[in-house]
Automatic annotation (TrEMBL):
Matching Gene3D superfamilies: Tetracycline Repressor, domain 2 (1.10.357.10)
HTH tetR-type domain boundaries: 16-76
Domain of life assignment: Bacteria
Species of provenance: Actinoallomurus spadix
Protein known as: TetR/AcrR family transcriptional regulator
Residues of the DNA-binding region: 39-58
Pfam hit, one: TetR_N
Alphabetical UniProt keywords: DNA-binding, Transcription, Transcription regulation
Length: 208
């Protein structure tokens, strides 16, 4: 017998499948309370279905959480706006935008990932769902390579090390912010002058 449809889906014309409803529900719970201690029962109750319904649509809890985590990342990215295109504006200004975007993205999603450190299977499933050129880091690499091809960067600009430097700055800054907020909930994010300093350092290595 097919599982009873969730109350949220009944009468809705079938616009949303139960599988999609479970992903949306889990993503909302991740946004509200993080991933630590998030159980199948909590997701099922929030979705308005029996606990076992999840297993009619996902192999296990880890698969659902991986899809929900990916949905959470995509939701955060949509709220951060568009990234600059190669050849537009100035490289210095564009790198500031990329770095600020990366910092905001990491600040929003890192708590969810931190809650899954004891569940490496979920992180592995999430990595499997990520397509090439699908995340901020890949887009930054593509952007700098395109700028190099356009001649706006040095011909032999070491793009990959520059990107690793910017990604590392995001990780270090947000981890430090999370630690400070454990003692001071009002701790401020990374100030603009620090973003400017990082961009200046990167451009010294890859600029013309």
């Amino acid at each position: 017998m097919a599982p009873r449809r969730a109350a949220a889906l009944r009468g809705g014309g079938g616009e949303q499948s139960l599988r999609a409803h479970l992903i949306v529900t889990a993503e909302r719970l991740i946004a509200e309370r993080g991933t630590a201690g998030l159980t199948v029962r909590a997701i099922a109750r929030a979705a308005g279905v029996a606990d076992g319904v999840l297993y009619n649509h996902f192999a296990d809890k880890e698969e659902l959480l991986a899809h929900a985590l990916r949905a959470r990342v995509r939701a955060v990215e949509r709220g951060l706006g568009e990234l600059p295109e190669p050849g537009s504006g100035t490289i210095e200004g564009n790198l500031r935008t990329y770095l600020a975007h990366g910092l905001d993205l990491h600040r929003a999603i890192l708590p969810a990932f931190a809650g899954l450190l004891a569940q490496p299977e979920v992180l592995a499933r999430f990595a499997d769902l990520t397509r090439p050129d699908d995340d901020w880091r890949d887009r930054l690499i593509d952007y700098l390579r395109a700028e190099r091809d356009l001649g706006r960067l040095a011909p032999q600009a070491p793009v990959e090390p520059a990107v690793r430097m910017m990604v590392g700055v995001c990780h270090e800054a947000i981890l430090s912010l999370l630690l400070r907020r454990s003692e001071d909930p009002d701790a401020a994010p990374v100030p603009q002058d620090e973003i400017d300093a990082v961009v200046t350092a990167v451009l010294r290595g890859i600029g013309r």
